[in-house]
Amino acid sequence: MSPTPPVRRLRLGLPRRVFSQVLLMQLAIAAGVAVLATGLFLAPLGDQLDDQAMRRALAIAQTTAQQPQIVRDLRGTAPEPDGPVQKEAERIREATQAEYVVVMDRQGVRWSHTDPERIGEVVSTDPGQALAGREVMEIDDGTLGRSARGKVPLHDEDGRIVGAVSVGIAYDSVRARLIHAIPGLFAYAGGALAVGALAAWLISRRVQRQTRDLAFSDIAALLAEREAMLHGIREGVVALDRGGRIRLLNDEAQRLLGIAGEAVGRTPHEALGEGRTADVLAGRVTGTDLLTVRGQRVLVANRMPTGDGGAVATLRDRTELEQLGRELDSTRGLIDALRAQDHEHANRMHTLLGLLELEMYDDAVEFVGEVVGDHRATAEQITERIQEPLLAALLVGKATVAAERGVALWVSDRTRLPDRLVDPRGLVTIVGNLVDNALDAVAGTPHARVEVELRAEGRTAILRVRDTGPGVPAEHRELVFTEGWTTKEPPAHRGRGLGLSLVRRLAERQGGSAVVGEARGGGAEFTVVLPEALAEPPPEPALTAAVNTAAEEESR
């Protein structure tokens, strides 16, 4: 025997596709609204038809009671089936298509009725309110069944109540009108449902295109993966809407930009302030791998527009890479300096060897003395005027590199800088960038020269670097401090256009300034002012001794 195949159980439930689910939900909503609207319309319709029937009955009764002939016949004749009151009441009933028109006297005796045999009998319902002078509208059960009726008093010429008139409208006619109105209502409801179904189908198709026919579970999974990816990657992501406002910031972007999630809903300039970083994010600066500086970080930004009119910007932290690049530059500078020294040393050793071979011993001694004296004089000159070891070592190395490149690097006679710097490394960065920039500017020019002046005025450090290069045009004197702006070809390992920007940022961070102007005799002159760059000088020994002596005397 062959094995019995497993029984598959049918599982009923919503379809997985978003298109089908949205369509079913929209159809259910449209059908529910149609049924609810029809029910809400039918609920008061019966009451409205009842009210119309009662008012019609009351109007017929009022018209009948206003005929003076009925009052005269009521007084002058007896209640008979062939009497004038019966004839007139039947004429009115047939003309108005009422169910009955009953005229009664003050005792409630009928003078007219649809059934002539009931004339002369007392009415089945209480006529007290009508005989008391009040008009009555009601739906009640009488001898002719359920009806909408109206009762009014019957007055004589003197205004006395001599009887009452009761008019009834068959309730079956009211119900027939209600039933007759239902098909039309259902037709309108069906039309509204068809329009709603069409609108639901169109909306579902649009949702299908926008969601690419994914299931809700797939969309939820994609959103969860998106959140995990955005907040897990080590790259800043900033999304902007079509109005230029930030709509998404991942954790890395908040860290790199130094802002929190409250920036969502604001423009980059509102969240970051004016500057190149905000301009790059807003799209005012275009290009790829744009360099910008935010605080102490060097960032590489790329911005790509999206199909809805917004944009997505990515940010990469290039601070470490930039530091490595600068260290590489420093290493290359040191290698160049060592190469220059080696080359110069080899030439001098060859010269010394030649003098010794020629047995010109006195000339050899004099030559060695001059070489050692020149080097000692240069180093002593710098260290005498600049007492900060890092700065002095930097300028000694830069002087060697400058000599190799055919540039004369001079330290101004006005240079005086004590060993009291608060941030010597920051000043080393500033001086190194300005000297490198000056060496690049004068390279290849005749009589190339770079002059450095460093002096202290109280606790303020003033730095000036002059060169004999082409200078900086007036219209570019602010642009040179902008991140990414340069007139030079970028090296392979990193971009250019950050050195002068960092100089200004370091200066402004210490409350100072960095500007460029024209040097005397042509060329550029960069001036950096750093307030509070030096610590308070230590008290003089004599003054300290005097203070200590005074303190001891007071203690005695």
Which features would summarize this protein structure in a list?
556 residues, alpha+beta, Beta-Lactamase, Heat Shock Protein 90, 5-stranded antiparallel sheet, 5-stranded mixed sheet, 15 helices, 14 strands, 50% helix, 18% strand, ATP binding, PAS
Outline of the structure:
The chain is of the alpha+beta class and 556 residues long.
What does this structure look like?
With 556 residues, this protein is α+β, with helices and mostly antiparallel strands. Among the domains are: 21-177, 2-Layer Sandwich (Beta-Lactamase), CATH 3.30.450.20; 235-317, Beta-Lactamase; 386-530, Heat Shock Protein 90 (2-Layer Sandwich), CATH 3.30.565. Helix content is 50%, strand content 18%. The chain has helices spanning 18-65, 68-76, 84-96, 128-131, 171-211, 216-232, 251-257, 268-272, 276-282, 319-357, 361-385, 389-404, 424-442, 499-509, 541-555; strands at residues 100-105, 136-142, 145-155, 161-170, 236-240, 246-249, 290-294, 297-305, 311-317, 408-411, 449-457, 460-467, 513-518, 524-530. The strands form 3 sheets. The protein has a 5-stranded antiparallel sheet, sandwiched between helices. A 5-stranded mixed sheet has the order 10-11-12-14-13. It has a 4-stranded antiparallel sheet with strand order 1-4-3-2. β8 and β9 form a beta hairpin. The longest helix is centred in the first third of the chain and has 48 residues, at 18-65. It starts with 17 loop residues before the first helix and ends with a helix. Residues 6-12 and 490-495 have low confidence and may be disordered.
